[in-house]
Amino acid sequence: MASSSSAASISANINSIPMLNGTNFKDWKRNLLIVLGCIDLDHALRNEQPAPLTKESSHDDKREFERWDHSNRMSLMIMKHSILEAFWGVESEGVAMVKNFLEQIEERFAKNDKVEMTTLLGSLMNMKYKGQGNVREYNIMEMHHIVSRLRTLKIELSDDVLVLMVLLTLPPQFNQFKISYNCQKEKWTLNELMSHCVQKEERLKKDKVESAHLATNPKVKGKKRKFENEAAKGQVQKKQHQDSNDFNVCVDCIKGKQTKTKRLGANRD
Question: What is the pTM of this model?
Answer without folding.
Answer: 0.46
